[in-house]
Amino acid sequence: MSTPLEIINSTDYIITGEISYMTVFCSNHYFFVKPHTIWKSEKRGICPIIEVSATVRTPRGTFVAKPFISIGTNHSLFEVIQTRENVFKVMRMRNGKNEKPAVLKTYNHNFLEQI
Questions:
Q1: Which of 47, 55, 66, 100 is the most exposed place for a label (fewest CB within 10 A)?
Q2: If the chain, 115 residues long, is cut into consecutive pieces of 10 residues, what is the mean pLDDT of each piece?
């Protein structure tokens, strides 16, 4: 059973975009989302997603967000965020939270000097 697609617009601007699938047997979804709202598709099907792209319209112009690109994912929750002024990104979300890359912790230099 498939879950509907959701695109969360966490920006202050209108976004439009496209969800592209791995096979030609699945037709792409197009979306339009007002600021701080969610777009939901009725049905997604079983087709893996290879790209979620978005365009953000601001008073300063139209900007292309960095797309989410995959070799084929079954995830269905994505978010468009603003990372800097006029810089936007599409992110995959997991359980309602952004999936952030793991950060390697640095070791304590002082500890090594004490040995």
A1: 100
A2: 83 96 87 96 82 96 96 91 95 66 43 47
**Overall pTM > 0.85:** no
Question: What is d(CA 75, CA 54) in angstroms, rounded to the nearest whole number?
Answer: 17
Residue 100 domain-assigned? yes
CATH number, domain of 16, equals: 2.60.40
| Rounded Cα distance, 87 and 33, in Å | 17
Residue 1 lies inside a defined structural domain of this protein: no
Question: Whole domain around residue 100: which residue ranges?
Answer: 6-114
Dihedral, CA atoms, 95, 19, 91, 11, nearest 10 degrees? -100
- Cβ atoms of residues 65 and 88 within 8 Å: yes
Interatomic CA distance for residues 76 and 74, integer angstroms: 6
Q: Report whether 45 contacts 15 (CB < 8 A).
A: no
